[in-house]
Amino acid sequence: MQNVFMNIEHVRALAAVVDEGTVEGGAFVLGITASATSQRIRALESRLGQVLIRRTNPITVTEAGEAVLKYAREIELLESETIDRLHGLAIGADALAGPGPGPRPAPTLLRIGVNADSLSTWFRPVFAEVASWDDIVIRIEVVDQDKALPLLTSGDVLGTVTSASRRGYGTRVERLGTMRYVAVATRGLAERFGSGAEVDLRSMPMVKFGHDDDLQLDFLARAGIAAAPPVSVVPSSWEFAHAVAAGVGWGLIPVMQLDRLEARSDLVRITATPFADVPLYWHRWTLASEKLARLTAALHRAAATMS
Question: Which residues form the HTH lysR-type domain (predicted)?
């Protein structure tokens, strides 16, 4: 395929409508009309000879659109860092002569994916580090740890925490650590469905985080149980833990949360193999970005608390 030049304003229009979900929303962010925004995207599609977005509500990207959206995110990040460097040079030059460096550049937006359990436990020190940076803001997409990679592939995020270890095209992967989950239930629930540490997991009610959460089902499969018991769904990390502590059902809770729950509940560990270890990896774009490297270092420092 011959080299094809993409107009950067057309690429920005694509990213804007995907971010906002509609052409009108993207147009508002860009400060132009909806008609002009549509024309830019159609011109880009014509230039590339491929459909880039699905004009649904909200707007989504096609496979070709994913590649262009990722390019748009990379340009956004590298452009922001270049402006920061130029601003720094201008401050230095101002000490000698000439006009001042102008207003401080807008902070760089770093979009990342993090699973809910990590967000509620070991990830929290990252917030303290980000709070000390005046040149970075973060936008977090909450996603299950084994369903996160599509966000990276599509360009929705520039890095994500996931349980998958295999590196994708144009990305690098670094191990963060292992998150241990413990199978627990209230003492009363465990006594109703078993004796001692052994319970009947085929009939004992269970709590899941969400429809995409396979952690409990995988645990049952390893125990040789194919059919799912009665299931309640609680799609929030701490509310999930409190639902288990209230006796709604058994569940797998991160050890880092369990330590805080056991002091004020009657939770007991169930089954002969009561834990599941989930390895976590940080997948990110392969870019020479100081800000992305800084965020990566903060993640590693925070993840060290998992061990």
Answer: 6-62
